């Protein structure tokens, strides 16, 4: 229902919109993919960095513990304490000055070590704070409430109950590496606690937000995070464990940090995980992409609105240009519309130099020719009408001719001139048959009857008689054939094939049905045709050369052949075969019709 200019405009915009639309989709798809990829790269880098920090701190804690484990003086002194040996004040002062001060210097020189403490099972020794404590003090610490854990055990995120501070709100939360001191004589004679602050070991935990948060999960599946986000982490803990298990099963964590898009707590996020091997735990970071997706969606909406505005401007501009280009076409269309309404005098004006201008020129030329042809046709119809009027004025009544012939016949019979009477009767029937054209088709039997009348008249001209021999089945006699199809063939046989006969002769007609096709063979044993003459006659029938037979033989063989093909199709007609001084055979080929048709 749209106008042609609108269709062209929409087509142009459609051709533009398809590649541009694909480009926009790919652009935003790549933008989103790049957003996630950059986030993954940044997350992997930061997780690896945090892992290295934790690994380094764990190594420092282990080295600090080994300083005490491998120091013979310290171990001898601790063994003596465990055996309840009495020490003088000078012995303790000497041990403190030489060994304890050296350990404290190591602790102070390492910024990552929070505390390095030794717990001994003795009631006689004096505590040297902050290095030497009695073993019963471990009951105040998280890792010592249920007994002393095995050597190499890490304990995370607990308050330092032994810290000497007046501000209870700023008691540091620490993580410790526990090492037992054993001797074959005294058994366990001490415990070493190498502690670091949780904030130094996992700084990201204490700088987390709801949208960018980090947690640590130890080998027992206990989750550690900032206190403010603990409720959120506990809700998503099951999803986090499934995430870790999936990475462990795929062995993705064997080469460092891994980051991927997943759903945590029903939200699509960017999740990263790295395994800290020295402390047998997992550092996990979750970054919500909600804000980025909202920003990306806003960009898409803004770009879409901008693109719609551009399309509207392009549509208006393109429609105006297309309308200007099709101006000549619309003028041609209006001209054709006026012609359809009957106005043949209208012409295309203001023709351009493009294809539409050429079309307008051709249309004007065509209208001029149509006008000329209509004038000629009108003049010709006037002439035809005038000729018809004159023909009606000069027409002789057919019944008057038949009545005159009937009167002559009766007079011949009265005078007993029966030969003349039969001749007039045959001529009257032949004339009546020739002049009655109520229908273009007759039965083969009716056509043969007229051939008999024709031969009766022809025999008046010759001393010798021309007979008719027939062998035609009843099925063929009932077939329809164009009127005056067989008689011209017989006339041609007499006029050409038998023009020199000197004795009685005969024309043979034979009919046969082969594969639903009727064949009527008309043969004369006259002078025949030479090969060249036969080939020329065949070319006349096929239309390869101009037919002149109509001028010599009335309707002529060509006329019969054409009417048979018009009536039954190109596969039918007549076929001629001849031999010089022997025979000429004309075969009429028509379709076999099982149903009889009435003749009018």
UniProtKB/TrEMBL annotation:
<keyword id="KW-0597">Phosphoprotein</keyword>
<dbReference type="Pfam" id="PF00672">
    <property type="entry name" value="HAMP"/>
</dbReference>
<dbReference type="Pfam" id="PF06580">
    <property type="entry name" value="His_kinase"/>
</dbReference>
<keyword id="KW-0472">Membrane</keyword>
<dbReference type="InterPro" id="IPR003660">
    <property type="entry name" value="HAMP_dom"/>
</dbReference>
<keyword id="KW-0808">Transferase</keyword>
<dbReference type="InterPro" id="IPR010559">
    <property type="entry name" value="Sig_transdc_His_kin_internal"/>
</dbReference>
<feature type="domain" description="HAMP">
    <location>
        <begin position="323"/>
        <end position="375"/>
    </location>
</feature>
<keyword id="KW-1133">Transmembrane helix</keyword>
<feature type="transmembrane region" description="Helical">
    <location>
        <begin position="301"/>
        <end position="318"/>
    </location>
</feature>
<protein>
    <submittedName>
        <fullName>Two-component system sensor histidine kinase YesM</fullName>
    </submittedName>
</protein>
<dbReference type="GO" id="GO:0016020">
    <property type="term" value="C:membrane"/>
</dbReference>
<dbReference type="InterPro" id="IPR003594">
    <property type="entry name" value="HATPase_dom"/>
</dbReference>
<feature type="transmembrane region" description="Helical">
    <location>
        <begin position="6"/>
        <end position="28"/>
    </location>
</feature>
<dbReference type="InterPro" id="IPR036890">
    <property type="entry name" value="HATPase_C_sf"/>
</dbReference>
<dbReference type="InterPro" id="IPR050640">
    <property type="entry name" value="Bact_2-comp_sensor_kinase"/>
</dbReference>
<dbReference type="Pfam" id="PF02518">
    <property type="entry name" value="HATPase_c"/>
</dbReference>
<dbReference type="GO" id="GO:0000155">
    <property type="term" value="F:phosphorelay sensor kinase activity"/>
</dbReference>
<keyword id="KW-0812">Transmembrane</keyword>
<keyword id="KW-0418">Kinase</keyword>
